[in-house]
Amino acid sequence: MANNEEQSAYWNGQMGDAWVSVETYIDRMLSPLSDVAVKAADAKSGTKILDVGCGCGPTTLKLADLGAEVLGVDISQKMIDRANEHAGERSGVSFKVADAASEHYNGDYDIVFSRFGVMFFDDPVAAFNNLRSALKPGGRLNVLVWQAPVKNPWMSLPARAIEPYQPDAPAPDPKDPGPFAMADRDYTRDILTQAGFTDIEFVDVEKSINLGKDVDEVMDFQTYVGPLSRLLEVVDEATGMLAIQAVREEFGAQQTNDGINLSASALLVKATR
Ligand SMILES: C[S@@+](CC[C@H](N)C(=O)[O-])C[C@H]1O[C@@H](n2cnc3c(N)ncnc32)[C@H](O)[C@@H]1O
């Protein structure tokens, strides 16, 4: 579908509500990964940053705390409403509901930043070309994207557990808009090159992330966000209960004295205008 309409409907619908309700959990879980991207952004007083797909604004606010002037843009009204609640009257940070792929920019940003907000474009070359236009000459792209599911057991484990309950459907193209759309480095390099970026670099960011103290806490999240939550929207109640039990058992088997921890792998993608 053209113009990111499907993603806009998705993030403005039930997923927007779900994300808002688990935002604190998500931010805690993702911080070990995003701290690497925030550090690499080298935000300080005088730095102007665009945070793309900023969601409820956790990274926008962190970058502003470091002294930068930051605009967070997101296609979801629900998430930007929450981000504005967090920001209150703070100076140096603002939020806007916008499709980052087509928004008009003035070419005055030092950094285009994102934590997992740039893998959802219908036309990634056009979108990254537009994001490049947000940067000053010499400005930097500094975005975090997911590596392949096999390197992200925290997501692939529930996906595997629910396979027997999935309705028959053609396998999606891994490069379709979605969390793993930029996992392939050659493909991403090609997109960014076509979009006019240079000095393209990939930094592996691999961390153990804490999904919760126990399986109940993990399941609270899993029923809102992720593959199980999507399955629950399309299957009958009995099938849903079986799928929930299957995911519970998989996560239960991962319990340790330090809670449930699994590895997560992202790529920090850097490039220059
Ligand atoms: C996985 S969430 C990440 C949110 C946030 N960066 C975080 O880490 O908590 C992806 C975000 O990208 C946003 N998004 C998707 N497509 C977008 C687009 N074309 N323009 C702006 N935001 C978009 C979604 O609304 C969603 O908030």
What does this structure look like?
The protein is α/β, with parallel strands linked by helices and 273 residues long. The protein has a single domain (2-148, 172-210, 264-272), classed as Vaccinia Virus protein VP39 (Rossmann fold, 3-Layer(aba) Sandwich). 42% of the residues lie in helices and 24% in strands. It is built from 11 helices and 8 strands. It has helices spanning 5-12, 14-21, 23-41, 58-65, 77-87, 124-132, 153-161, 185-194, 215-222, 227-234, 237-252, and strands at 48-52, 69-74, 93-97, 109-115, 135-146, 198-212, 255-256, 259-272. Strands 1, 2, 3, 4, 5, 6, 7 and 8 form an 8-stranded mixed beta sheet that branches. α6 links the parallel β4 and β5 (135-146). The protein is globular and about 55 Å long. The two termini are 29 Å apart. The mean pLDDT is 95. The structure holds S-adenosylmethionine (SAM). S-adenosylmethionine binds at residues 4, 7, 11, 26, 30, 53-55, 58, 73-76, 79, 99-101, 115-117, 120-121.
In short:
This protein is α/β, with parallel strands linked by helices and 273 residues long. It is built from eleven helices and eight strands.
How would you describe this structure in keywords?
binds S-adenosylmethionine, 273 residues, single chain, 8 strands, 24% strand, alpha/beta, Rossmann fold, 8-stranded mixed beta sheet
Task: Give the SSE map.
Layout: H1 5-12, H2 14-21, H3 23-41, E1 48-52, H4 58-65, E2 69-74, H5 77-87, E3 93-97, E4 109-115, H6 124-132, E5 135-146, H7 153-161, H8 185-194, E6 198-212, H9 215-222, H10 227-234, H11 237-252, E7 255-256, E8 259-272
Parallel strand pairs: 1-2, 1-4, 2-3, 4-5
Antiparallel strand pairs: 5-8, 6-8, 7-8
Helix pairs in contact: 2-5, 3-4, 7-11, 9-11
Bound molecules: S-adenosylmethionine.
